[in-house]
């Protein structure tokens, strides 16, 4: 429980949540680029008609996407924990606390769905 009675505590927690949101999006984008880079390399190096297999870049890319989704989910849980510890005086009157949390949860869900989709679809 915070004893500062200062809304800056809440805004600091929200900035931290949004920083984690950017980090998770970056991890997912990086993972997608790595996953698709393997397809590009395969197109440059393999003979036409060869079967595309799940190579190292495919698994590393999926791992980064999943890591981004996990980071978004964990940071959302951490933010909820912080919110529960704040007093009403520390949250400005009429300020909505849920949009940042919902955005982060949406990023986590979409990252998980992208991981599942890419796993089912396979490379290429």
Walk me through the structure.
This protein is mostly helical and 124 residues long. The protein contains three helices and no strands. Helix 1 (7-45) packs antiparallel against helix 2 (56-85) and helix 2 packs antiparallel against helix 3. It is rod-shaped, with a radius of gyration of 20 Å.
Q: Helix and strand succession?
A: HHH
Task: Quickly give the structural class.
Answer: mainly alpha
Which ranges are low-confidence, i.e. pLDDT below 50, for 5 or more consecutive residues? Answer: none
What fraction of residues sit in β-strands?
Answer: under 5%
The global form is rod-shaped
Tell me the distance between the termini.
Answer: 51 Å
The main sheet comes to:
none
Q: How many strand units?
A: 0
Average predicted local confidence, pLDDT: 88
Number of helices: 3
The gyration radius over C-alpha positions equals 20 Å
Task: Bin the helical content.
Answer: over 70%
Give the topology, please.
Layout: H1 7-45, H2 56-85, H3 98-121
Helix pairs in contact: 1-2, 1-3, 2-3
TL;DR of this structure?
With 124 residues, the protein is mostly helical.
Features:
single chain, 124 residues, mainly alpha, 3 helices
